[in-house]
Amino acid sequence: MAAKFNDAPLTDVLAWIWKRFGTRAQIGTSFQGAGLVMIDQALRAGFQFPVFTLDTNLLFPETYDLKARLEKHWGIEIEGLQPAEIVKRLLAKRIIASTSPYAVSYARLAPSLVNTPQEVELAAREVLALAR
Q1: What is the pairing mode between strands 107-109 and 51-54?
Q2: Alpha carbon of 27 to those of 99, 101, 102, 103, 108: distances in Å?
Q3: Residues 58-78: pLDDT tens digits?
Q4: Range(s) for CATH 3.40.50.620 in the chain?
Q5: d(CA 81, CA 132)
Q6: For position 6, what pLDDT does the model report?
Q7: What CATH number does the domain located at 1-81 have?
Q8: Do 63 and 31 contact (CB within 8 A), yes or no?
Q9: So what's the pLDDT on residue 87?
């Protein structure tokens, strides 16, 4: 698979993903260049992937403003995943997570000595997947 798409244009990769997964595939963004290019190219090619961002409740006002401007520009909604939703999605993958009890809640993981390296790696991959 990697060899097939390693040098392929982004739109070819997106087309394969869209054909195979449709709206079950999503684009995660932290509003950096690569993610924004991917969203733009997908939309230009007619692929209506759901788009999300991890909302830590600590984003700068400018980030929320950028999100609103991008939603208006592209005519889409960028879902802001809150800590409780992040925990729910991780628990569905059998990864134990919780929200913090503070006024501003965070999603948190608590790997410990009883976790295997494979479990920690799986948790890290799933959190990274949520962020993409």
Answers
A1: unpaired
A2: 24, 29, 29, 29, 22
A3: 789 999 999 999 999 999 999
A4: 1-81
A5: 12
A6: 84
A7: 3.40.50.620
A8: yes
A9: 86
